[in-house]
Structures are given as structure tokens and as C-alpha cells.
Amino acid sequence: MTSSGWLIMILSVGSVTLLLTWCVIKVFTTPEETEHIHGFEQATPDVEKDASDKS
Amino acid sequence: MVKRIKESWNSRLGVILAVAGSAVGLGNFLRFPGQAAEYGGGAFMLAYFVSFLLIGLPICWAEWTMGRFGGQAGFNSSPGIFNYITRKPAFKYLGVIGVLIPVIIYMYYVYIEAWCLGYAVNFIAGNMDFHDISQAGDFWGNFIGISENGSAIGFGLKQVGFYLILVFVLNFILIYRGISKGIELFCRYAMPTLVLIALIILLRVLTLGTPDAAYPERNVSNGLGFMWNPTKHVVEHQAESGAWIVEKEIVDRNQLEVAEKEAIANATKRVRQVTVSEQLLNPQLWLAAAGQIFFSLSVGFGVIITYSSYLSKKDDVVLSGLAATSANEFCEVAIGGLITLPAAVTFLGVAGVAGMGTFGLGFNVLPMVFANMAFGGFFGFLFFFLLFLAAVTSSLSMLQPGIAFLEEAMKTNRKQSVALLGLITALGCGFVVYFSEDVKALDTMDFWVGTFLIFVLSTIQIVIFGWILGIEKGFLLAHEGSAIRIPRFFKIVMKYISPIFLIVIFSLWVAANVFGLDLRTGEATYSGYIKDLFIEPNAVAWLSVALIGIVAALFIFIITLNPEYKKITRKGSK
């Protein structure tokens, strides 16, 4: 690989890696919106409703 | 009629992983490296990042914003959301495209998903001991029934039938479990697993060195050079007409010196350096880069708009959209760009890899590579299992718009909508699998729906956001609850530049791929897809187009039955 090839590869891979890292940090450091934003656990309302109707 | 209870995502991380899972697919690991290498790494990446900023991110943010806005009014599918935002009757029919695209693509995508699972199983079972590329090609041909219609239907270990049923059922079980317990839960585990597997394979590929001393030019460095070098060196010979014809590309420095000496001795040969500027002047490169961004990010599929409709008003869309997009870009550039071609060139050389299409690279070249690698059975299994995971997270996202549409327009519950969509997609998938000769049905449907209609839907979406909803209101909506702000210059980008860029790219694409215009020489011959329909009519191509038309007509009919859409149109508000 040529030196310009190395440069292109490092710039491309580095830029997308930096962008992802920044996004991940930002997502995890925004505490009020990180987990359970709707205040209930994993649920499938209409499926569960069907099941309870049967029983 | 059953009263529906509003579904919702369980966490922000969950929706980000689900959207990223939708975007990360076979294209990241197979299509992207092939495109980048064909057009010269540096020049292609420049056009690629420009396209990312001008169409990828803007359409992505527009979809996230419009989806959440429509979701607040109780709509989860493109027809309902378009109708609600525009208050124009025609747009609910245009919204059908946003349901048609994922449903039709699912019909053939699940077939390819089954190939990935089948290859993973066969690697573990030790059935992939190939000695040359033709053996790998024969295995693939037999596996998918490429020689004769109907020959793909079989249930042995080396036939696709069993895997197809397995992945079809898996998809519908997960989709039946719902947004949070099905899609979100699966993506929460599948996406980190996918990245972990990719990093293990990446480590293996980058430490391959020069596996065969008899071919010193076949090494990782030249593999990376084939992918990333911005200038290319091609050997050309002069035809009797005087035109110079490209013979091959050379990456290895020693081979280049030999070729240059040969060219000095032979007047009908030359070694030409293709510079970055020369490549950037090639419209085909821009078309390829924009197309890759477009299809890779899952924008214009009708998926993001449905996924984001399950968010609440205060949930962030700007950071979530950027995070999902960046996860896809990481998988594509940082993983796909370092695994596929370097591995292939290390074992087969540049000549054995150049010009291979997505399927050729993925299902002929790479199995051959893994077959010749130490612990190849294990790494081959890992790679195709990685593709399988990427495919499942994508195919799940293709089902949700259809489920949302049926629940919304027909007032069915999840069980009924899953059963109806299961029937429609099973019939369509059966059609694709039966007409397997030369993958004609798959190829025709992918061209007209998986490419053509995606351009159309993206253009409609960005026009609705920038011009009908209005760019100021659009930005206000996007920033409700947002963790970060969209830079102000994106107002100009999203209102003017994205639609113009998109229309120009779309026009060039139609000229090149429908009318067969060579964008460099100006010569034109109709593409195979037009020939199949109008010049040398092909029954399977016509049946494929008819299938698309029947599904579209069914969806339009269902829309006419829904009184809620009419109510919005008539009164101007819900």
C-alpha cells in the first residue's frame, strides 16, 4: 500500500470511529434519556392483552 | 376490530441499536468494499463523505423527525404519516411506497439471509473444502438453484429450503413479540455480538501476512492497497482501432516495475496512472458513492419513519439518528473496508478479485478464501454467522412497516396483522425461490423496488420535510427533546441542496441504468431490465413486475377502506 493509501485509510477509519465514539459517549452521558424512558419494562401490550383475554 | 394499545421503545439505546441494525447489512461487508476498490479508495471516499453530508444525514434526520411527529397523532406507517403531515389526499397513496419497499425487499432478502445461515452451517459441518474458485461457484449455484427454475427447493444440508423456513419463522416470531420485546431485545444482543465477531475476524485478516510464499504479491498490504490507494495503476493494450483497453490493475510494487519494463519494450502496451482528479471527474463514481450511502443507511426504505413513530414527543431524534448512522458507518468503513478485500486479495490476488459483484465476492470468493485459511472452518462460520445476524436485524425492520400499516389501516391486532403479512411475504418469497434461474426474479425486484423506488421515496420525503412541512417547522420539531442541535447550515442543505443533489443523482442513475447511457462516452444501449420488459420480453421479469403491482394495488385498496385517513383530508385535522 502506498503512503497516500495509508493516509486515506487512517483518515476514513479514524473519522467514522471518532464520530461513533463521540455519539456513544453523548448517548451514555445524557442520564435522563438513557434507560427506561417510558417507565415500563419490555412489554408487548396487544400480545399480552390477547393472552390475558384467552385466560 | 380490536382496540390497539400504543407500542413503544423501551430505551433510547434500544431504538438506536434497532435502527443501526436495520442499516447494517450485507452491503456494509460486501458491496461497499467492492465499490470503493473499483473507483479508487481516496476518490471514492471523498465522494462518499460528501454524499453522507448532503443526502445521508439530512434524509435520516428528516425521517426520524417526521416519524416521531406522525407517531404523536397515532400513525406508524408512511401512508398515515404522509397524510397527517401534508393533509393532501394524494400523499397517502404516495406513502404506499414506504410500505411496498420493505415488504417486497423482504421477499428476496430473507432468501439471501438463508444463504448466509446455510453457509455458516456448512462451514461448521466441514462441507466447504474448496480447491479452486469454480468449486465455490458450483456450490453456490447448486445451493440457490441458479441453473433451473424450481431447483432451489430442497431440504438437504446443502440446499436452501430448510434454512429459508428457519429464518422466515424466526423473523415472524420476533416481529410477533413486538417492538420492545421482539425487535429491540434481539438487536440489543445481536448488534454487540455482530461487532465482536467482526473485530475477531478483522484481527485474523490483518495478521494473515503472506500465506503463500509462491505468490509474494498476495499479501495483506497489497489487499489494503487495492482497497484504499487513491491512485490506481492499470496495464492497457492498444486495440487495432487504436483505442487503449484496460487489461488489469496492478497494486504490487515489484509487479508494477516489471509491467513498466514490458511496456517500454512493447509499443502496444502501457502502464497508466489513474489519478484522483481523473476519477473524481467520472460521474459514475459519484453515482456509486451516493448510491452506496443511500442504500447503506436505510434511508428512503420506509423503515426509519416507522421505527421513530414509536418514540414519545420528548424523546431525542437528532442524536439518536446521528448515533445510529455513525454505528452503520463504523461497521461499513472501519470493519467492512478492512476485512473483505484484504482477505480476498491475500489468497486470490488482485486479478482473482477485481470486478466481482456483491454475490460473487460474498458467496464465491470469500468461501474460497476461508477454505484456504488456517482454522478456515471456524472463521468461515464466524463470517457467515456475522452476515446472518446483520441480515436478521435488517429483515426484521422490513416487516415492521407492513405490520404497522395493516394494524393502522385495517384495525387488526398483532396476531392478525402478522398472519396476513406472513401470508403475503410467504407467497412472494415462494415466487422468488421458485424462479431461481439466474436469480432473475430477485434481480428484477431488487432493481425496480430495491433501487428505483428508494430514490423516489427519498425524494418525496425530503420534499415533504423541506417544502410542505417547512424547514423552520421541521427544525423546531426535530429539536423537541433533542440532546444536540442540528447545525444551522443544514437548513439550506435540507431545503435546497439535498433535493437538487438527489434529483441530479436520480436522473443520472435513470440515464445510466435504465437507458444504458455510458456517462463517460455518451453511448447508449438499453439496460437488461428494460430489454427484459420491452425489447426481448422475459416471462419471469414480467411476473416479478406484476407481483410488485399486485401488492401495491392491495395496499392502495386497504388505504381506501380506512376512514381515519379520509377524516384528516376532509377536516384538515384529526
Write the layout of secondary structure elements.
The complex is a heterodimer of chains A (55) and B (574).
Chain A: H1 3-28, H2 45-54
Chain B: H1 12-23, H2 26-38, H3 41-72, H4 78-86, H5 89-94, H6 97-124, H7 133-144, H8 161-176, H9 179-206, H10 220-228, E1 232-238, E2 244-250, H11 253-265, E3 269-274, H12 276-280, H13 283-296, H14 304-308, H15 318-353, H16 358-371, H17 376-410, H18 414-434, H19 440-468, H20 471-479, H21 489-514, H22 528-535, H23 539-561, H24 563-571
Helix pairs in contact in B: 1-9, 1-15, 1-17, 2-3, 2-13, 2-15, 2-16, 3-4, 3-13, 3-15, 3-19, 3-21, 6-8, 6-17, 6-18, 6-19, 6-23, 7-16, 8-9, 8-17, 8-18, 9-15, 9-17, 10-15, 13-21, 15-16, 16-17, 17-18, 19-21, 19-23
Summarize the model shown.
Chain A is 65% helix and 0% strand.
* Class computed from helices, strands and strand pairing of chain B: mainly alpha
Output mean pLDDT of chain A. 73
Coarse structural class of chain A: mainly alpha
Series of H and E elements of chain A: HH
Most extensive interface between two protein chains, with residue counts = A-B, 37 and 57 residues
Which stretches of chain A are low in confidence, meaning pLDDT under 50 for 5 or more residues running?
A: 33-43
Largest sheet of chain A: none
Q: Low-confidence stretches of chain B at least 5 residues in length (pLDDT < 50)?
A: 570-574
What's the N-to-C terminus distance of chain B?
A: 20 Å
Descriptive report:
- The complex is a heterodimer of chains A (55) and B (574).
- Chain A has 55 residues and is mainly alpha-helical.
- Chain A has a domain at 1-33.
- Helix content of chain A is 65%, strand content 0%.
- Chain A is built from two helices and no strands.
- Chain A has helices at residues 3-28, 45-54.
- The model of chain A is unreliable at 33-43 (pLDDT under 50).
- Chain B has 574 residues and is mainly alpha-helical.
- Chain B folds into two domains: 12-212 and 283-511, Amino acid/polyamine transporter I; 232-274, no CATH class.
- Chain B contains 24 helices and three strands.
- In chain B, helix 6 (97-124) packs across helix 19 (440-468).
- The longest helix of chain B is centred in the middle third of the chain and has 36 residues, at 318-353.
- Residues 570-574 of chain B have low confidence and may be disordered.
- At the A-B interface, helix 1 and helix 2 of A face helix 1, helix 3, helix 9, helix 10 and helix 15 of B.
